[in-house]
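DM from R.C. (forwarded with permission)

"hey, sorry to bug you on a friday — could you get me a structure for this? deadline for the figure draft is monday and I only need the backbone to look sensible"
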Amino acid sequence: MWPKDVGIKAMEVYFPAQFVDQTELEKFDGVSAGKYTIGLGQSKMGFCNDREDINSLCLTVVHRLLDRYKINPQEIGRLEVGTETILDKSKSVKSCLMQLFEPSGNTDIEGIDTTNACYGGTAALFNAISWIESSAWDGRLAIVVAADNAVYAPGSARPTGGAGAIAMLVGPDAPLIFDRGLRASCMRHVYDFYKPDLRSEYPVVDGKLSIQCYLSSLDTCYQRYCEKAKAKTANHDITLSYFDAVLFHSPYCKLVQKSFARLALVDYVNSSKSKTVENHADLQKFSNIALEDTYFDRDVEKAFMTSSKNDFEKKTKPSLFIANQVGNMYTPSVYSGLVSFLIDKPIEALAGNKVGLFSYGSGLASSMYSLTIIKDIGADSSLRRLLTNLSYVKTELETRREVHPQEYTTILAAREKNCHVIPFEPQSSIDNMFPGTYYLIGVDEMYRRTYQRVPNLK
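My reply, with the result:
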């Protein structure tokens, strides 16, 4: 018998306690005003100094999840990490996280790391759900961690960086229930964004190809999802109206708005083929276009961004709050969108919502799937507890320290210089870190890393 209502029972999000303002970065970089803020849709960008790395990000977010929800480490039977920020070609980040569970005597925890650009967190989440719905499940819960430090070489891609981590507790009787049998994927071999130089934190990026891959994968996943959903809903046509919210992986916020418009375009083309199209005189000239010819068609983009604007404002824009304030977290990106959506609305407006999600990782791997929010909004409901426990997010965003672009640039240059230096001792202050944050003490002559934790004052 299937476990009932498998999904996300708890969420914890973490981002570094410093940021650079995108308006100031525009001035510093000497680009036109609005290039990053309006063109990319970004306001602030979080980043790691030399005190934080992928291990510390994950240690912080998992320990905070355990603390905030009072989770007994012995309750966890699977722990999986999705990341593309790799410190070691052999030793997993998950193995580093085991130091949080060993003191309780629990070393019987399945799962390791999953890697494919920004898709790794989603793959880890799917693995956790599959474990709970399999014969291997022993009744315990799973934790899925998605975390990355997204940094770019100096140039046009640098303002699309970010950093952060999300931990999700997965199990039955969840307030956010994954829709069983409703998942569509698109996997292809492409060199749009990749990291072949293991000496560097920076990727190789083909920007135009990456956008084309993202949008074409979105087209494919959405149409395949709609076909599967239609089969489950007695041949009812599935369109954007099926969802109360649609969340996307967010390389930058402007691309998400274009992506929502893209789905409106797909709906329109499909309705034109089935002769059910509504009478939109201004869109009729697009009724017979081929989707693959429109990835960089400004007329199509503008027309459907305009026609879908009201729906975008309602169904997707609320999910971009953290992305706008922190930047692209990579693997946590779509899940930071979920957190943003949840903290934007009162519980009454969330109850019973159907939420569509699109996850994309270059190279490429992508999926569209959905979840349903439970209707129970009682005082003791699991949904209310989840929302209450996310109330810290806005406060922490507001209390971060702003860093001048010159200091930010100097910090990234130092990270680049010290990427594989041993022994290494970080120089950045820990004074402004959030309570409960893990930080790097040093790397010894055998590349072994040690960490401490800022006292948790809560």
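R.C.: lifesaver. The mean pLDDT is 95.
me: no worries. The chain is about 35% helix and 20% strand.
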